[in-house]
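We modelled the chain as a single entity of 271 amino acids. Its sequence is:
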Amino acid sequence: MIDKASFNQEELRARFNPEGSLLRRQQLVMLDIVKELDRICKKYEIPYFLYGGTLLGAIRHNGFIPWDDDLDVALLRKDYLKLMEILPKELPEHIALQTNDTDKNYFYFFAKLRDKHSFLDEGNYDRVFKERGVYIDIFPLERIIYWTHIKSAPFQGHTFKILRTGKDDVKSMRKVRFITWVNRYCTFPVLRAVSQLCRTNSLMCDYGIPFHKVYDLKDVFPLKTHDFEGVQLSIPNNSHHMLQAMYGDYMQLPDLDHLEPHVQRIEFYDE
């Protein structure tokens, strides 16, 4: 493992996200969105925390991974459901909440907060969504028995197969919406009930989210704060264990010559 002193943060920023670059503009918009989320969560005492590559960026870079073009947060499912009710009343005009309820073609089982003054093309399933601005992801985590999560994957995975054909016709989208509805109200509640019968401290992304990493609830709480781009944001109590579960030797930089961005095209509009 290498520490932060073993690589030059300023050189990384100059190479990947210098001030004024499209990526840096995108990161600053995402930062604005997560600051609004932080404000709302503090107001209503909803515990959330930085997650995934964003947590890695906080610990390794005190902000965004210089080449990163997304931002992830997570919270327990019960808090997620509460947050989904509050956000429509609290979000400023320039940020839109995107869920199954706000976008009929949105078939993910996690929420996005979208900037309304930009357009982002990831070159995949986002082509069918109503909102397509710069976003952050909000993931619900739940106590889940591992095998039930593995078994759940093909149920929602069929929607991805349908859209990979490139067909966005009425018939295809009707299938996607139907499968999502069945899983949301029938399949996943049954699997969730099975997990609740077996008390566990194993945390996973909620059903329908194709990430199978397992975390320990004891590593999350009590939350603490960490510097992220000059702002104090919430992180898990034992980020080291969580990052090890996700990335292994997480302080080691990847091959910087073979990075794959999420974004294919991005535009910013005048407000």
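As a brief sanity check on the tokenised model: The longest strand covers residues 135-143. The mean pLDDT is 93.
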